[in-house]
Design goal:
The longest helix has 13 residues. This protein is an alpha+beta fold. The protein is elongated, with a radius of gyration of 24 Å. 23% of the residues lie in helices and 19% in strands. It is built from eight helices and twelve strands. The strands form three sheets. Strands 1, 4, 6, 7, 8, 9, 11 and 12 form an eight-stranded antiparallel β-sheet that branches. The structure holds zinc ion (ZN).
Length: 339
């Protein structure tokens, strides 16, 4: 199950955002309005092909119904909408302002990830060649004045990409599309879950987190939600996720997927005031503990738990590299002085 970005190349390198998802002043109407999609332009591809982000079914490939006096469509202009089932949930990806006469698909077509749908254009209510790209939760093309029902496309695509890297581990298939997997799951004795502590940096999501999940990502989620951290997703975690989803305006299903994960953040420990820098009594390295390590971690912007582990070592090396110090992952007087 591959995914594709809606345009060729790498985001920010070959194509970029000109207007993000969220509240903005409308470029033509000059009124404050919620932008329910992401406006993207191509940097290196002309013509720019608009591509399906995932396998799915084309539900619209047509001009918008309202028309200018010239007969050309207003609003979305010529647009394509594709319905995707991802992790058992329905999403509609919409591509607006396509170039007239460039549709490569029609309503009802099944498409694969990366399949060309049309060419980028400026039809409809648009000031220049760009793609207005939306992700709407559900089975239909949506509209709302405040963004409800829509997802921020860039974090959505990034999460989808993270899933894509580890396909076999990533997917918890729904019973109807993978009966063998489901039967196998029930016939084996499940191993006792392993306990995890929360990693200092947010891990990539490599599968849906739900009851039965057991990983570092679950531990991170629990820490972010302020509940007991053991890396084991049980009913208590599910309840906390549901509460969080409700408060964040997400679909309340107790499952952490591409919509919920980007909003899960562990609050950073505030750095201590400058005058509290402790004296370095000996070099800090893997296995070191205490107030000096805590200070070091807060200066490096990582979780300050006072334990010098692999994450801290990595952050120290990155810091040393940035400061052009000897990169050894050990904090001696030179590195300490540079903090
Ligand atoms: Zn737009």
């Amino acid at each position: 199950m591959a995914m594709s970005w809606p345009l060729d190349g790498v985001y920010t390198k070959n194509f970029r955002t000109t207007s993000s998802f969220g509240w903005r002043i409308h470029p033509i109407k000059k009124t404050r309005k919620h932008h329910n999609g992401e406006d993207l332009i191509s940097i290196s591809h002309n013509p720019a092909y608009l591509k399906a982000i995932y396998e799915g079914t084309v539900i619209e490939a047509r001009p918008a119904k309202s028309r200018y006096a010239s007969g050309e469509p207003k609003g979305y202009g010529y647009f394509v909408a594709v319905r995707h089932k991802i992790g058992g949930k329905d999403y509609v990806a919409l591509y607006a302002h396509c170039k007239k006469g460039t549709f490569q698909v029609k309503k009802g077509d099944k498409v694969k990830a990366g399949q060309v749908l049309a060419i980028m254009g400026t039809s409809g209510f648009s000031t220049g060649v760009h793609l207005h790209f939306e992700i709407h939760v559900g089975k239909k093309v949506g509209w709302s004045s405040n963004g409800s029902g829509f997802l921020d496309p860039i974090p959505f695509l990034k999460s989808l990409e993270a899933f894509d890297g580890e396909t076999s581990k990533a997917w918890t298939p729904t019973p109807e599309n993978s009966p063998t997997q489901d039967i196998a799951d029930h016939s084996v004795t499940r191993p006792r879950p392993t306990k995890f502590s929360a990693p200092s940096t947010k891990p990539k999501l490599q599968g849906w987190l739900k009851v039965g999940s057991n990983s570092e990502a679950v531990a991170y989620l629990q820490k972010a939600l302020g509940i007991k951290v053991d890396g084991i997703f049980g009913n208590g975690t599910k309840k906390a996720v549901q509460k969080f989803q409700e408060a964040s305006g997400l679909t309340v299903d107790g499952i952490v997927g591409v919509a919920t994960w980007p909003k899960v953040v562990v609050a950073e420990t505030p750095a201590p005031a400058k005058d509290t820098k402790p004296k370095l009594t000996k070099s800090l390295k893997r296995g070191s503990r205490g107030a000096q390590v805590k200070f070091l971690q807060s200066k490096l912007g990582i979780t300050a738990d006072g334990i010098f582990g692999p994450g801290t070592q990595k952050a120290v090396k990155a810091f040393q590299e940035k400061k052009r110090l000897a990169v050894d992952g050990v904090v001696g007087p030179a590195t300490w002085g540079a903090l």
